[in-house]
Give the backbone structure.
Amino acid sequence: MNVKIDSHQHFWNPRRGDYDWMPMDNEILARVYGPRDLEPHLLATAIDQTVLVQAAATVEETEYMLGIADASPRIAGVVGWIDFENQEHAYHLRRLAKHPKFLGVRPMIQDIPDTDWMLREDIQWAYELIIECDLTFDALGFPQHLANFLTLFTRYSDMRFVIDHCMKPQIRNHSEDSFTHWADGMSRLADQTTAYCKYSGLVTESDGWSLERMRPYVEHLLKVFGSDRLMWGSDWPVCRLEASYDAWHSAARALTADLSKAAQDRIFGGTAKEFYRL
């Protein structure tokens, strides 16, 4: 049986007070999202399981997500957060690693002003402990982080890395230079490291999306990562800023429709199952 997996979605409650990035006047984002809200979309798209990913830079939100996961068979695992700048959080990582649905961590690098933050000497302990605990690392960044991620992924070649949202190419401001910078950086990550990539977030970066606008990006990802290292994710409910869950799923399917069934099965389930060991 080919299990269909959404490798990247969120639940949140803004009243928790730790979603510092969230504009509280945004009617789409600033509301509660839980399993009951997502279930109709999973049924409509025949998705069997999901990976629930952190959206707040607190351990408390990770605990909140694990509580939801414990009560939700649909959630295959949780990607959480620890404070890389506080070595006392080694305790939290070791503790969380014992939970059967805790998969790994995602520092919110895209929100950190210092582009070189990930290479700071004082946070290297966290990468070493992730490897020791056999956990995963979700790489959340922008094209300006590509070179540093290559350094990081090469330095810790034993770590299981996955690139979130295709490293957020700036499709809305597409130019030959910006595409080349992104494409070359992604090619190096694919060729020189064992990183995987999430086929997610493209509609949000498009600002008026269409298959035609996204196609060259998807074609490049397929060329360099292949279906064996590419996994589809909805990034719901963030995707709702540009498209419904069902619309993005349909678009993602249309952009990969020429692939073999085996390749499509990898992208829409098999790759995530393998990477996260679900």
The two ends are 14 Å apart (CA to CA).
